Amino acid sequence: MDLRLARVVVVEDEAIMQTFVLNSLRRLGILDLFAFDDGATALREVIKLKPDLILTDVHMQPVGGIEFVRQLRGLPNNQISNTKVIFLSADSSASTVGEALPLGVSGYLVKPPSLAALSAKIEAALKK
After folding, report:
1. pTM for the complete prediction?
2. What pLDDT digit, counting tens, does each position of 43-62 carry?
3. Which long-range contacts (CB under 8 A, 24 or more apart) does 80-85 make?
4. How many domains would you assign to the chain?
5. By the 8 A CB rule, do 34 and 121 touch?
């Protein structure tokens, strides 16, 4: 998939990191971008937007990234429930990564990701 055609949702509650990720995605040529600061809002909007990819933080309130992805995977519409997801988190603990990976995600990046690492994960996710 041409990255310029990808619709990407970013779920990140820290404004500075959200801006960083959005700017990084724009540098990769992705312009169809949407950002939300919690999993509950993101889930409502993802149902409408039908993105190609979601980049989500793990630790957010009131609904964190892991719970957001669990709810996403439980949706009845396969087009939405099977959306590619990459976790972005400052938490690289084995327990958090171990809880995230079984959710059928396309990757886990530690924040802040390099542009090269972000690009590689996104390209790999969208090729599947």
Report:
1. 0.95
2. 999 999 999 999 999 999 99
3. 80/46, 80/47, 80/50, 83/46, 83/50, 83/51, 83/52, 83/53, 83/54, 84/52, 84/53, 84/54, 84/125, 84/126, 84/128, 85/53, 85/54, 85/55, 85/56
4. 1
5. no
Amino acid at 10: V
Q: How many residues does the chain have?
A: 128
* Token digits of residue 61: 């309130």
The range of the structural domain enclosing residue 31 comes to 3-127
CATH number reported for the structural domain that contains residue 55 in this entry: 3.40.50.2300
Widest CA span of the chain, in angstroms? 35
pLDDT per position as a tens digit, 76-104: 999 999 999 999 999 989 999 888 888 99
Helices (H) and strands (E) in the chain, counts: 6, 5
117: left (phi over 0), alpha (psi -120 to 50) or beta: alpha
